[in-house]
Specification:
Distance between the termini: 81 Å
Number of strands: 5
Strand order of the largest sheet: 3-1-2-4-5
Strand content: 5-15%
């Protein structure tokens, strides 16, 4: 005799319905998660484009120079000096997928960090100035020069963390993930080396490109430094 429910279903039928329902619910959750991730990625890329426009407007007003980082003084950080060139600065400077986005808004910080090559002048071991790449007007290949990244989740909520030390990147993936989040947009938790997923990158000419974390790591492991201006010496 078949086991049945009071509603006329057999036990096997009930189990099948429950299993199918669970599968459909899992699929719906995954679809909703992917849709949210795609939307957040589009918003983040839009924020970067707006930051790119603001950088160019600032440079136009300052002889081609890009703003400074907090290393020149917290009050001179690009996050603050760029504010007059952004309409909704509190929203634009925060990535919607940033787990610390609310704290950053409260502290007037940004989810995005800038390339030290372009925003800081460097000096040699004896204090001699090295070639500068802060002037957009003289930058040789702005379309191939990264300017802005999404900062790593583990960075302290401090204005001093407004830039990333990109001069250390060549051949050293740990230096990359020490400063940026190359897997900002992914499915599930981060992998140990943050190679599952992708992130948008703003280039000096204002365009934004999405790069898979695995591709970025491949380039780093090959000895390339994608953040270094092509005309810069190794």
């Amino acid at each position: 005799m078949k086991a049945s429910s009071p509603y006329g279903f057999t036990l096997v039928e009930l189990v099948t319905v429950i299993a199918v329902g669970a599968i459909l619910a899992t699929i719906l959750v995954q679809v909703a998660s992917q849709a949210r991730r795609s939307s957040e990625q589009s918003v983040s890329a839009s924020h970067m484009r707006q930051i790119g426009i603001a950088l160019h407007l600032y440079a136009t007003d300052h002889g081609g120079l890009l703003p400074e980082t907090a290393d020149s003084g917290v009050d001179r950080s690009w996050v603050y000096t760029l504010a007059p060139y952004l309409d909704d600065v509190e929203e634009v400077l925060v990535c919607p997928a940033d787990p610390k986005r609310d704290e950053r808004r409260e502290k007037k910080l940004s989810s995005y960090v800038v390339n030290e090559y372009l925003f800081e002048d460097a000096f040699g071991p004896f204090g001699e100035p090295l070639p500068s790449y802060r002037n957009l007007e003289t930058l040789e290949a702005p379309s191939r020069t990264m300017a802005v990244f999404i900062g790593a989740d583990h960075l302290a909520l401090s204005a001093s963390n407004d830039h990333v030390h990109t001069r250390r990147w060549a051949g050293y993936w740990l230096a990359v993930i020490d400063g940026i989040q190359p897997d900002r947009f992914r499915t599930g938790p981060p992998s140990h080396y943050h190679t599952d997923g992708s992130a948008p990158y703003l280039y000096a000419d204002g365009h934004v490109a999405t790069i898979q974390a695995q591709e970025l790591k491949r380039r780093i492991d090959a000895g390339e430094n994608p953040a270094r201006p092509p005309e810069a010496a190794d």
